[in-house]
Amino acid sequence: MPAREELSVRDSSGANLVEFALVFLLLLLLLAAIADLGRGFYTYIAVANSAREGVRYYSRLPCMAADASQRNALYTAVRDAVVNEAAASGINLSNGDALIELNPDPRSACPAKGSPVRVHVVYTFRSMIGFVPMLSGDRFSFGAIPLGHVATMVSFGNDTP
């Protein structure tokens, strides 16, 4: 029959293994949450930079009020500038997860010289740890977080033909 000391050593080593497994899982979850938070900040910076690049294009490119095709081309150029700037950071704004708004919309009216022009970009960030509910507005969402940025600049005016 084994001595009493041997039984207590073997029992405590099993308990240590269970404790290690529980703590290791918690630390792994914490590490994943930290990495996901870093991805979120990186994505927000890319969204903000893309909105700034879009408004930079919008404020400097000419808008001719009489030419509807040129106004449509301006709208497309600004959206392309936003999408390309985000793509340089690895963020795909061309799929259904993004909203890009221009104010005023060049398809309907050209901004006056000296008036503010705005580009609003909203991207739905998909969390790696989507099982953790996050408060988003007035509801809980599971892993989908809207990240948005509004950039504003003054219009340099319109070129007249």
Question: What does this 3D model show about the protein?
Answer:
With 161 residues, the chain is an alpha+beta fold. The protein has one domain. The protein is built from 2 helices and 5 strands, in the order ααβββββ. The N and C termini lie far apart (104 Å).
Question: How would you summarize this macromolecular structure in one to three sentences?
Answer:
By secondary structure, this protein is an alpha+beta fold. The chain has helices at 4-60, 68-88, and strands spanning 98-103, 116-126, 133-136, 139-142, 144-154.
What is the secondary structure topology, with strand pairs?
Blueprint lengths: L3 H57 L7 H21 L9 E6 L12 E11 L6 E4 L2 E4 L1 E11 L7
Antiparallel strand pairs: 1-2, 2-5, 3-4
Helix pairs in contact: 1-2
